[in-house]
Structures are given as C-alpha cells and as structure tokens.
Amino acid sequence: MAPAQMKERLTTLEEENADLRAQVEWFKRNLFGTGKSATLDALQTRLKLGEEAAQPEASAQKKETISYERAKPRKRDQPAERFKNLPVLETTELVPDAVKTDPEAYERIGEEVTFEVQITPPKLWKHEIVRGKFRHKLDRSRPPMIAPALKRPIDNSYASAELLAYIALGKYLYHIPLYRQEKMSAH
Fold first, then answer.
1. Contact call for residues 185 and 170 (beta carbons, < 8 A)
2. Could you give the number of structural domains in the chain?
C-alpha cells in the first residue's frame, strides 16, 4: 500500500473507532442509567460481558458447622403464687339472682374464688370475690348456677381500677418509672 492510502485508511479507522466508542457509551448510559437518577458505577464499566469467570476448584467454599445453646424460657409465676402473701382486706360474695329469690330451693355445692390486687398507697392488698355455685335441691336435671363474674378494667387481669390509676398517676403525673414503682410496692 502506498503511504497516502495508508494515511487515508488510518483516518477512516480512527473515525470508525470514535463512532463505535460513542455507540458503546450510549449503550452504557441506556443500560446502566441515564445519569440523572442513577449513577454509572466505575466497576460496572469493568464488567467483561460475555466472558464467564472461571472459578478454580481449589477455592471452593468450605462448609462449616455452627452450633449454639439456647437458654430455656423462664417459667412464669402463676398469679395465685405471686400474690399469695398479700393480705385479704375485703371479701365480696356474689350470689345468683335466682338463689336470692328462693334460697331454700338451692344448696351450695362449691365456689369459685378470684381476686383483684388493690392498693392503698403505697400498700397492695387483695379483694377476694367469692362466687358460690348452687344446684337445685329438687330438680337435679338443672345445671349448676354461678353468679356472673364482675367486669374488669382489663380482661384477664388481676389489676383493679384503683391500682391501674395509681400506676398511671405515678408514671405520668409524678414521673416515677415503673421499675421504681415495683420496688416501692414490693411485699
């Protein structure tokens, strides 16, 4: 080839190379983001697409066994056990209305005892609520009767309305933390 032809060929190849580079940049922008909402990561440009990285077998991941011990959950105290040492200052007996109207027709066969934890600042005490169970003396086919339980401020709770008010006032009005209130009322 003549030097003039080589020079012309070199110029053509440089133009083609510049055109191809512009196309590659356009594809990168469209593939990896426009640059407005996503930035082009420098590592993404180093990706060798089409080439699969061969992983040597020597660097295969080793399996390792991990073991641990888990503590047993603490056994929760039953409310009857937790409050067994509180003194009982008041006992209320609830009797069904049918037994009140005709007490001679019923005999007492048992009772259910529940309690509420009351407070006379700063002393806790129990208010026992006894609900007697009755059955009809003459008609044994009737089911046993028991007075309905009193409504509680919080269902399935042993806290009375007075105790809840005392705790709320201590926490929010007097700024006494709950753990300190617990220590103050320890029995």
1. no
2. 2
